[in-house]
Write a structure and sequence with these properties.
Elements (H helix, E strand, L loop, with lengths): L1 H33 L8 E7 L3 H17 L3 E7 L4 H10 L6 E5 H9 L19 H6 L10 E6 L2 E5 H4 L4 H4 L11 H9 L8 E3 L10 H5 L6 E2 L2 E2 L3 H15 L7 H4 L4 H6 L3 E6 L4 H7 L4 E4 L11 E9 L6 H11 L2 H8 L5 E2 L2 H4 L2 H4 L10 H4 L5 E2 L6 H17 L5 H10 L8
Parallel strand pairs: 1-2, 1-3, 6-9, 11-13
Antiparallel strand pairs: 3-11, 4-11, 4-12, 5-9, 5-10, 7-8
Helix pairs in contact: 19-20
């Protein structure tokens, strides 16, 4: 009898304790919601992203606006500024795939081909024409599935040190115009050499990796790297790469690695030691802040096939594994609207994927450098949208290795560099 009474008392005491804890938990939730935390009976979405702290703050502001418009939804941002793709792959492998992910073109195509991303076509079905076609194409899988909604478009232009340009011979200055040609570079370089400056000055920047910096030299001369997903350089590509290599090895229009040590191309441009600096829109904010000279941008110079640069995009993709797909669609749609893209434009960091916004004063920002921001837009029609072979992750590393040897060994031919990589098992199918 005593045991029974004790058991009943213990059970009753436990129920009272459990009831008290429940009341405390309900009070905590109400108070936490009042402070802006997760309210009761709320769905939590995860959103992964990278970028600077300023970019993170912009994203937080947009997420807050989304939560205010959707009171029953809460968004948890997974901010991964370093090794983003690798960190994302670990989350996917551990079954913690974010509901919505910010992805670049390469990751979009790779993840889409692996069946990880939801079709985003329905989100912009009524406004496909609002986006740059090249942006949509870079986010589209080979089977035609739109795997992400583009937020911005990334391409290359040539930044020009205008103060340095004004010191060149008049005939050289006349060559530097929107319709200029790759063949003009040696003539311009002669005038740069005639300046006889106390510090070494070069005509144009030189990158051996990543490929996006030297591919415009190849594409603009009619070169191609791939044939049916297989690495197979055609003759114009081999010649274009030889001409690009000569900028550093023979004509010395571009800096050699040994000449600059640890300095980057952006360092040299800021120091006034580069006339032309090949880069993307991402260079605008730091040049506005740090450059002590007048600068502007030009389209990439024309070759035999015109002026052709790569077109990459960054955008928002939804996980096919998301248990809250409808809510993930709502978040993606919200982050892709005009007002959301405009928030990123103010910093000068991106070219918006929406055409109307890209041609508006919000992006062009008249009165600020660069004066000719519209050249980021005019490069779109002739640009080459991202299209990566399925094995690009390993192939890209092998290609970088081959190019490193080629660009830094004076007498090494492109054919031999590819052959050596093939013998190492790094680049099967190379010609």
């Amino acid at each position: 009898m005593k045991v029974l009474i004790k058991t009943v008392f213990t059970l009753k005491h436990g129920l009272i304790t459990l009831f008290s804890l429940s009341l405390l938990w309900m009070a905590y939730q109400s108070w936490h919601a009042f402070l802006g935390g997760v309210p009761n009976s709320e769905t939590t979405l995860t959103l992964s992203s990278w970028g600077t702290l300023d970019e993170l703050q912009t994203l937080k502001t947009q997420v807050h606006a989304f939560e205010e418009a959707h009171p029953t939804l809460h968004v948890k941002i997974r901010y991964m500024p370093d090794l983003y793709t690798q960190s994302l792959q670990m989350l996917i492998a551990s079954n913690q795939t974010p509901d919505v992910m910010m992805l670049n073109s390469l990751d979009v195509q790779r993840f889409c081909q692996a069946g990880l991303l939801e079709d985003a076509s329905s989100l912009i079905q009524q406004e496909r024409n609002a986006f740059f076609p090249t942006a949509l194409k870079s986010m589209t899988a080979p089977n035609g599935t739109l795997c992400a909604v583009p937020r911005d478009v990334s391409n290359l232009v040539v930044y020009v040190n205008q103060d340095l340009l004004k010191r060149l011979a008049p005939q050289a200055q006349a060559l530097v115009k929107p319709s200029w040609h790759l063949a003009d570079l040696p003539k311009i370089a002669e005038s740069v050499a005639d300046l006889h400056r106390p510090t070494k000055t070069w005509t144009i920047s030189f990158y051996q990796a990543p490929a996006l910096f030297w591919l415009p030299f190849v594409w603009s001369e009619g070169g191609e790297l791939f044939n049916n997903q297989t690495l197979k350089l055609n003759d114009p590509a081999i010649q274009a790469l030889a001409d690009y290599k000569a900028l550093r090895q023979h004509t010395h229009l571009a800096p050699d690695r040994q000449e600059i040590g640890n300095a980057t191309m952006s360092d040299l441009f800021l120091q006034g030691r580069l006339l032309f600096f090949l880069s993307g829109r991402w260079s605008v904010p730091f040049l506005r802040e740090k450059a002590t000279f007048q600068w502007d941008v030009l389209p990439f110079p024309q070759g035999k096939s015109g002026s052709r640069v790569g077109i990459d995009s960054t955008g928002y993709a939804m996980s096919r594994r998301s248990p809250h797909l409808k809510d993930a669609q709502a978040l993606t749609r919200f982050l892709s609207r005009t007002d959301s893209q405009k928030a990123w434009v103010h910093s000068g960091l991106i070219v918006p994927a929406r055409q109307a916004l890209a041609t508006s004063d919000a992006f062009l920002q008249r009165g600020q450098s660069p004066q000719h921001a519209d050249y980021f837009i005019t490069a779109m029609p002739t640009g080459v949208p991202s299209a990566y072979p399925k094995n690009w992750t390993s192939l890209g590393q092998s290609l970088n290795s081959a190019m490193d040897a080629y660009f830094n060994t004076p007498d090494l031919s492109m054919q031999q560099a590819l052959k050596d990589a093939q013998l190492k098992g790094a680049m099967p199918d190379a010609s």
